[in-house]
Write a structure and sequence with these properties.
The chain is an alpha/beta fold. The protein folds into 2 domains: 2-184 and 368-385, Rossmann fold (3-Layer(aba) Sandwich), CATH 3.40.50; 202-366, 3-Layer(aba) Sandwich (Rossmann fold), CATH 3.40.50.2000. Helices cover 41% and strands 16% of the residues. It has 14 helices and 13 strands. The strands form 2 sheets. Strands 3-2-1-4-5-6-7 form a 7-stranded parallel beta sheet, with helices on both faces. Strand 5, helix 5 (141-150) and strand 6 form a beta-alpha-beta unit. The longest helix is centred in the C-terminal third of the chain and has 18 residues, at 349-366. The protein is globular, with a radius of gyration of 22 Å.
Length: 386
């Protein structure tokens, strides 16, 4: 059965979960429709049919008058993210060639863009929400208005966190049309690793360096940890707009020789870094722009390799980490609590092993990526049969 798999961008390193999903369908043949394909050398598509649309990536963000003209043309449908004009005609032509039985859209913005076309062609459309599209994006009134009016028109809705499911149901969608399917982790790739005991504990944080990931609090907690354990390292893997600010904080706290910033790395390198480390830390927070963690992919990857996790009660993380069993959860911005958990794990290798093993088992049982993809395929197939 042909599936129109639609996303604004394919190949972002921070969205490796999308590539994993796309290349591991078993019952559906995905035909990719996107406005941008990046990092093709890293994220190959194994010959899957691909159509890159030759149109504006984000018409709703065009500068000056262009944005307002776009909104004016969208106004009759009360969907200010809809595909219009030449782009709409082009997509209709693509769909006539693909003949998909169903359309899957990643992120709410993309789903709004495709919704009028799907309804016109009477093709079931499923929206797969992730994070920003149900958090910070809602601060944009044009997006919020469009989404709230459109929710009831999606055939099915997929979310990655229980907090998102509650929000969607609260806004009028019947519970039987909302499906909690986290992205998961390929547990056959992120394998359990037995750590060698070492006097120098290595903490690791893997994320984009943005406010919502709370790396500042990891650094401040690590400064307290060093006072208790004497020595150790913190590896911060990933890049982002806050890197220089975080490096400056590290320098100001006198931690330069204890903290390493790797910058952006390829997924295979992440596996190596996780295998070399002892404890995973991520202090996610509700950011000032409204961003909330949907599903912590790096948390799942770390747990799958047997790393105990120290994180926060924030968004979908509470679904992933069982407090005091597969890791420790602290309140957001509570540096002292985070430092205490880090020290406890650093000084107790038996506890690290026990919690790490439980984390691995939890990932295999509840968050294995292939199992999640199978659940998604079942939702898509059931939607078509309706």
């Amino acid at each position: 059965m042909n599936l129109a798999f639609v996303s604004r961008t394919i190949g972002n390193q921070s969205e490796v979960w999308m590539w994993r999903q796309l290349t591991n369908f078993r019952k559906l043949i995905p035909h990719i429709i996107t406005w941008e394909y990046v990092n093709s050398e890293l994220f190959g598509l194994d010959g899957l049919p691909l159509q890159v649309l030759p149109f504006e990536l984000r018409p709703e963000e065009m500068p000056g008058l262009g944005r307002w003209i776009y909104r004016l043309k969208c106004a009759p449908g009360l969907n200010f993210y809809a595909s219009i004009g030449a782009e709409r005609r082009f997509i209709l032509k693509v769909l006539s060639e693909i003949k998909p039985k169903i359309i899957l859209c990643h992120f709410g913005h993309t789903a709004l863009r495709m919704l009028p076309i799907a309804r016109e062609q009477r093709i079931p459309i499923v929206v797969h929400f992730h994070g920003l599209d149900l958090s910070s994006s809602l601060y944009n009134r044009w997006y919020r208005w469009s989404l709230l009016l459109a929710l009831k028109n999606f055939s099915e809705i997929v979310v990655v966190g229980s907090h998102q499911k509650k929000w969607v149901i609260k806004h009028g969608v019947p519970e039987n049309r909302v499906h909690l399917i986290p992205c998961g982790v390929p547990t056959q790739i992120f394998k359990y690793k037995v750590r060698q005991l070492s006097k120098k504990i290595q903490f690791i944080c893997v994320c984009r360096l943005v406010e919502s990931k709370g790396v500042e609090y990891c650094i401040r907690a690590f400064a307290q940890v060093l006072k208790e354990i004497g020595d150790g390292r913190l590896l911060i893997v990933g890049g982002g707009p806050l890197q220089l600010k975080l490096e400056a904080l590290s320098h100001w706290l006198g931690l330069n020789k204890y903290i390493t910033f790797t910058g952006p790395v390829f997924p295979n390198k992440v596996i190596e870094y996780l295998a070399e480390s002892d404890i995973f830390v991520q202090h996610s927070v509700f950011a000032s722009d409204g961003s909330v963690e949907g599903f912590g992919v790096s948390i799942a990857e770390a747990a799958a390799t047997g790393l105990p996790v120290v994180s926060t009660r924030c968004g979908g993380i509470e679904d992933q980490v069982i407090d005091k069993k597969t890791g420790f959860l602290v309140e957001q911005r509570d540096v002292n609590a985070m430092a205490n958990c880090m020290v406890r794990l650093a000084l107790d290798p038996a506890l690290r092993k026990k919690i790490g093993k439980a984390g691995r088992e939890h990932m295999v049982a509840s968050f294995d990526a292939q199992k999640q993809i199978s659940k998604l395929e079942s939702v898509l197939l059931d939607c078509y049969r309706k």
